[in-house]
Amino acid sequence: MEGDYATPYYAVSIETSELRDDVMYRVMTEKVMDLAAEQAGYLYADWVVDESAKLVFYWRKREQAEAWMNHTMMLRVLSIGGQFWFDRYSLKLLEVQKEKVVLSHKSWQDNARFPVIKTPRGVLKLLSLEEAPLLKAYVNEQREHLVQWEPLRGEDYYSDETCYLRVKEMRRDFIEDRGCVLCLLSPERDRMLAYSNYSQFVRGISQSCFLGYSLAADLQGQGYMHECLSAGIEYISKELNIDRIQACYMPRNHKSAAVLARLKFEKEGVARNYLKINGQWEDHTLTALTLR
Asked: How is residue 35 annotated by DSSP?
């Protein structure tokens, strides 16, 4: 919850049946939450997504909660949801009559829920929402440099909104044990130097993930990518218990090949027409680092 509010206050609760399309549901829910935050009397919201979803909006006054319960846009999204994302939902108006808030003796920051790792020349971390502008600056500054190594991007990819939503998704993926994005920042934390994405976590008998990464053009050849990945791999292995990391590169990307070789990734084969990069289907060399 966001704070300690005088009671009574009010809530609009939405609970769905099992979700069919998790990605699109998340996108639309983010937009509805942003809209709610602009309304008079809004306090905060709780959102839990698993096989089904529960979303609760809290309001200062009953009439404000009722207005949100009947808001055209929210009802429209629920109608769309009934067609595409879930079979049924319940919509409830609740009154919070009593509230008890219990605080831990340690601050949230001291609990280190999200990784913050000091490296010799920077800080490797999962970005906070306040650091989304660093991601925006990075993708825009490196746009021409990275275009030959990445999928085609629309203009929205470089916007404030998309970068903010990407950071929210990074944090949610980490909490839900689906992946971990670690960005290398300058020591002052005012510039993003490199990006590493450990994605598609597979648990159980696999304990594996995929790795993607990029580095600012002006820092190439100075060991920054090795610094970022070596610290990240140690964290992923020791703290998140991932012991097989797979990565791939286009055969002509000699710098990427050298980075992986230095980290002791081993070649496992070649995938023909594996990924569509900059509008073209490209072969990729498949590699993996096994830490078992």
From this structure: H
Q: Which residues pair with 277 in a beta bridge?
A: 280
Terminal C-alpha separation, the chain: 40
DSSP-derived secondary structure for 110-137: GGT-S-EEEETTEEEEPPPGGGHHHHHH
- Measured in degrees and rounded to the nearest 5, phi and psi for residue 86 equal -150, 160
What global pTM score does this model have?
0.71
pLDDT tens-digit map of 41-79: 999 999 887 788 899 999 999 999 999 999 999 999 999
Q: Can you tell me the distance from the alpha carbon of 153 to that of 142, in angstroms, rounded to the nearest whole number?
A: 13
Residue 281 class from Cβ within 10 Å (0-12 exposed, 13-18 middle, 19+ buried)? exposed
**Residue (of 136, 94, 236) closest to 177 by Cα position:** 236
- Do the beta carbons of residue 211 and residue 249 sit within 8 Å? no
Give the total residue count for the chain: 292
Question: In angstroms, what CA-CA distances link 159 with 153, 163, 171?
Answer: 11, 6, 19
